[in-house]
Amino acid sequence: MSAEEERRLARVALTWLAEPGTRAVHHLVERHGPVETLDLLLDGGSPAGWLHTTVAARSAAGDARAVAAEALERADRLGARLVTPDDEEWPAQVASLAALRLPDVSRRVDGETAPPLCFWVRGSWPLGEALDRSVAVVGARAATGYGQHVATELGYGLAERDWTVVSGGAFGIDAAAHRGALTAGGLTVAVLACGLDRPYPMGNAALFDRIAETGLLVSEWPPGAEPLRPRFLIRNRVIAAGTRGTVVVEASARSGATQTARRAIHSNRVAMVVPGPVTSAMSVGAHEFLREHSKARLVTGVAHVLEEVGRIGADLAPLARGPQRATDALDDEARSLLEALPRRGAMGVDRLSARAGVDLRTALRKLSLLEELSMVVRRDDGYALAPPAKPKRAAAETPAST
Questions:
Q1: Comparing C-alpha atoms, which of 380, 374, 383, 372 is closest to residue 337?
Q2: SS3 for 216?
Q3: CA–CA gap between residue 197 and residue 308 (Å, rounded)
Q4: Which residues fall within 8 angstroms of residue 18, CB to CB, at 6 or more apart?
Q5: H/E element holding 189?
Q6: CA 387, CA 389: separation in Å to the nearest integer?
């Protein structure tokens, strides 16, 4: 076995011995490399008490190197590959997880947020290239029709503009975002919390196959790994740090989607929230996140998202405007004269200028302008509002020749 193969095997073994994101393991690998770190842990040299217990328990279930070798063979049969920091396609942005520190941490899963040791990938796109211009769209599993519509539109619009749509492959918002991107013929990435050979939920198996054909399935866990509950939070840090921003479409009061957005904010990424009805339980968590995090941004569509994650000055969303009116281009004097005219009948220039607060000379000049614009008409007894234009009738059809 070459030195490179030994390092790759060691990274897989370390991910099996301790859950991804374990800071003590990350620090050891940074200091000693994966092979020496694996030897150290297997010899009982863990610096943390709980980690020592975990490694001992896992080691009792099998030989770490043998498990890693079997995982590599299993992945090869699956058509998947292992990606490590030594590979060109490694996404460099996940290194920012080394500095991720969540405030008010009470659970170990919220403290163990170190960068990944490796990824398992299924799909032909280079992982780093796929995530370079990417946005995460996440939300409730029990999504409403409104939420699924918005997520589909976001997925479609982002993919149409050559942005990768990243999500977790779950029911509801995740699946809608993936499908929107696929419908647009764009690139989408599903980051899983289990082995690539047992995607969760199984009801989305056909969707996962479609994603693998044109995009990527990604996981930190080796083939065969089960989707245990804590692994979804561990996975969420990768979605947050691997993308330029995270959009929460719908989220209940205790939603993993807001945890992803929280990790995005503390990874110096953009966290965005789509507002929902205040009466919807599926938007309670999203609205509370907006209230609690001043850095979070409210977005209502693709244009707003691109303004937050795109190039400065190049992806500005257009200002929301009502329908344009003919009077929008008028100056103050012309608009005052127009407003001063009676709804019915005409009014003399002297009286009209006084009513509008405009001097007589200016009134005559502005009324001529309004007449040219077909907004007023001149009569013998003064000026009146022009009658509304009648809609044009369609030309009568000529009878067909016989």
A1: 383
A2: strand
A3: 35
A4: 24, 25, 41, 51, 54, 55, 58
A5: strand 188-192
A6: 6
In angstroms, rounded to a whole number, what is the distance separating the alpha carbons of residues 70 and 104?
39
Eight-state DSSP code of residue 200: S
Question: 3-state class of 374 per DSSP?
Answer: coil
- Which residues, 6+ apart, have CB-to-CB distance to 188 below 8 Å? 155, 159, 164, 165, 166, 167, 177, 178, 181, 182, 211, 214, 215
Q: Is the Cβ–Cβ distance between 34 and 15 less than 8 Å?
A: no
Q: Rounded to an integer, what distance in angstroms lies between the CA atom of residue 165 and that of residue 256?
A: 18
Classified as helix, coil or strand, 335 is helix
Nearest to 196 by CA among 76, 65, 66, 21: 76
| Residue 58 · residue 17 · CB < 8 Å | yes
Using one digit for the tens of pLDDT, what is the confidence trace for 307-347? 999 864 445 545 555 566 777 788 999 989 989 999 889 99
Phi, psi of 352 (to 5 degrees): -65, -40
CB 135 within 8 A of CB 269: no
Beta bridge partners of 272: 247, 297
How many other β-carbons are positioned within 10 Å of the β-carbon of residue 229? 9
d(CA 33, CA 26): 9
**pLDDT at residue 118 above 70?**
yes
Residue with tokens 């007023």, as numbered in its chain: 376
Confidence of residue 254 (pLDDT cuts 50, 70, 90): confident
From CA 391, how far away is CA 371, in angstroms rounded? 20
C-alpha–C-alpha distance, residues 101 and 267, integer Å = 8
Rounded CA-CA distance 308/254 in Å is 26
Q: Are 177 and 171 in contact (CB under 8 A)?
A: no
The token pair at 164 is 């990768």
Nearest-angstrom CA–CA distance, 260 and 248: 9
What pLDDT, on the 0 to 100 scale, is given for residue 311?
67
Strands 164-167 and 216-219: unpaired
For 342, residues 6+ apart whose C-beta sits below 8 A from its C-beta are: 384, 385
The rounded distance, in Å, linking the Cα atoms of 15 and 306 is: 35
